[in-house]
Amino acid sequence: MAGIKVFGHAASISTRRVLLTLHEKNLDFELVHVDLKDGEHKTESFLSHNPFGKVPAFEDGDLKLFESRAITQYIAHRYEGQGTNLLQPDSKNLAQYAIMAMGMQVEAHQFDPLASKLAWEHVFKLIYGLTTDQAVVAEEEAKLAKVLDVYEARLKEFKYLAGDTFTLTDLHHIPAVQYLLETPTKKLFTERPHVNKWVAEITKRPASQKILQ
Q: Domain named GST C-terminal: which ranges (predicted)?
């Protein structure tokens, strides 16, 4: 059977979520590099994997998927017994699973839109020769600070966002956090002691380091 393939760009936050998950699971895979232009890649071959033309896309044998968080959940379930368990300790406990799922929704709808916008302003604009809009940065940092206040309260009670074990809820944050730690927005993490400790824990993981190489 054909192996695992990821179609994406190694610098893409969404692609990195998938790569992180594969590294945590110690799975072999092929990264098929996709050159980005306005965030889209519209060759016929790529569109057969993702009709919306966004990275990443994913192939595991005959299965084709797109949307990074759907891909990571597939990997975590399909390869549950391999590498790091990225689900709750008791994956059949619906209450525990719901807490993890809730955390993933918070990341997707509350954290990521702000963090990705800040990464665009601080990092990707510079790559494309554009100028950071400091007014946008200030506005998005104020919003992200409120989200991180919620995280700080949560992390006073638990080591990780979904409890006391590392799960997909935490993993999904890592790529954007890594970018922001190299920018002035880092202060939003470091000035919150429990958030700062959590960030240190999740970014020092071997898989987190691999995606920076």
A: 93-213
